[in-house]
Design a protein that fits this description.
- It holds the Pfam family DNA_pol3_delta_C.
- Belongs to the DNA polymerase HolA subunit family.
- GO terms for molecular function: DNA binding; DNA-directed DNA polymerase activity.
- α11 packs across α13.
- This protein has 15 helices and 5 strands.
- The chain has 3 domains: 126 residues, P-loop containing nucleotide triphosphate hydrolases (Rossmann fold, 3-Layer(aba) Sandwich), CATH 3.40.50.300; 62 residues, Helicase, Ruva Protein, domain 3; 129 residues, Zinc Finger, Delta Prime, domain 3 (Up-down Bundle).
- The chain is an alpha/beta fold.
């Protein structure tokens, strides 16, 4: 059906940008009165047909945007025909009554493709899939975003930004806007990134995990100090470190009991794939004495923090930071 469309895909940023463009351009050309937006939740066929079965009002086209994919229940149609029950031919039957001058756009980033209504819509609609940008395509998009804001950013700077905040285009767009304003039309440098960009929580976890898993506790200390200079709290980093230590202890114990595959370790310990993969090489070479020393130091430190022997937060932030340094440096090396 040429007048039924579906926007889907995990790249919700690009999907949303394209949706806003459709709405903006349609409003400019055909007027606000010929634009409707509906929610699929609880949407009945009769309510949907009220919006799509009639010709546009003094215009060439009408646009109806539906957020989600409705599950139409059995109901009489405008011609007295019985619509299919939920999960049968309800979707196809309803869509065949859409007026040819009405454009229907369904927006469902992650539809349940097991449902019959979704399958029927996929058969009837023109589908546009918005996949996440990666690699060179993402770098080209970043370069264009910087250019539109009057700023130049080289590949090294773009790669650094990606390493800190990840590949989510919504987050990147916000960071690019902030950095461009700070650069004031001048080329973006690493100094701008260091001063203004705080790593996402996810990126912080994985980078710290990689440094410790590769046996570089000194670099982990430097990284955590850098995070604190940028505004991250020592308490927040301590919580991440405790999770890493717990995961490392579980992975090492599994290895020492004879489990050596990542899948086996995940099943035996409950540690997630990324953590198991990063920690496994170090766990294979870690001596029991080194693991016990790490656990004793960290457990004692955490107990003292919780009982008030060591202070954290506010004016005591530096005390916790020094404690974190000592515990990081006790992490085993290869």
């Amino acid at each position: 059906m040429e007048n039924v469309f579906l926007f889907t895909g995990e790249n919700e940023f690009t999907l949303r940008q394209e949706l806003l463009r459709w709405i903006r351009e349609f409003r400019e050309k055909h007027g606000e009165e010929n634009l409707s937006r509906l929610s699929a939740a609880g949407l009945a066929p009769s309510a949907f047909l009220n919006e799509v079965a009639a010709a546009p009002f003094i215009a060439e086209r009408r646009l109806v945007v539906v957020d989600g994919i409705p599950s139409f229940a059995a109901e009489e149609g405008s011609a007295g025909k019985r619509k299919g029950a939920k999960g049968s031919l309800g979707m196809q039957a309803v869509l065949h009554e859409v007026h040819p001058q009405v454009i229907v756009l369904f927006v469902a980033p992650k539809p349940d493709r097991r449902l019959a209504t979704t399958k029927e819509l996929l058969e009837c609609a023109t589908v546009r899939t918005f996949a996440p940008l990666q690699g060179d395509a993402l770098l080209r998009w970043m370069q264009e975003e910087f250019r539109q804001r009057g700023t130049a950013a080289g590949p090294e700077v773009q790669t650094l930004l990606l390493s800190l905040v990840g590949e989510d285009q919504q987050v990147l767009s916000q960071e690019i806007e902030k950095l461009s304003l700070a650069a004031g039309g001048q080329p973006l440098t690493r100094a701008h990134i260091d001063a203004l960009v705080l790593p996402s929580a996810e990126q912080t976890i994985w980078h710290l995990l990689d440094l410790l898993g590769e046996g570089h506790p000194g670099e982990a200390v430097a990284y955590c100090r850098q995070l604190m200079r940028r505004g991250e709290s020592a308490q927040g980093i301590w919580a991440i470190f405790l999770w890493i230590v717990t995961s490392f202890a579980a992975v090492t114990a599994a290895v020492q009991e004879g489990t050596t595959s990542i899948q086996g370790i995940m099943e035996a310990t409950g540690v997630k794939f990324g953590a198991a993969r990063s920690l496994l090489p170090l766990a294979r070479t870690c001596r029991r004495e080194a693991l016990c020393d790490l656990l004793n130091r960290v457990t004692e430190a955490d107990i003292r923090l919780k009982t008030g022997v060591f202070k954290s937060g506010g004016d005591s932030e530096e005390e916790l930071a020094a404690l974190l340094d000592r515990c990081l440096l006790s992490f085993p090396t290869r």
